[in-house]
Amino acid sequence: MKPDGKNFFNEVTLKLILQTFNWDYCHSLMDYCKEGDNWEHSIVPFRADFYPEGAMLARSDKAKIQSVGKTIIHYKNERFLTGWGVYDRFGPDGLNDIENWNFEEEMEWTITKFSGEWITTFTQLNKCPFRKTIRC
Fold first, then answer.
1. pTM above 0.70, yes or no
2. DSSP 68-128
3. Domain ranges of the chain
4. How far is CA 94 from CA 32, 80, 100, in A?
């Protein structure tokens, strides 16, 4: 896999981008990646659809960003409940074809304060809010 700046990122790059939004990357996404196929080069999928509910993306002193929801992907006349299901069936070619996945339901990255207050959700990195604009 190669980073594409939208769906797949080098982990160091992801950390730097999140820092520009004033979030601290939690360094846990690599723990969920499959062995082989260049995952050892610290390339991580960004979409929450690759991670279990509650996986932590980033945090601040007041809030956290976690994966929430469930995934239903339709791809090549098959139904998958996670992005890794596509990978298990089609390998890296399936991941490289992510633009052709149809999402019936998709997990989101959800920002909540540690007090439990819900703030917002997003699915793509370019929609991640600046921490200070949402007072987190």
1. yes
2. ES--EEEETTEEESSHHHHHHHHTHHHHHTGGG-EEEE--EEEEEETTS-EEEEESSGGGP
3. 8-128
4. 18, 12, 9
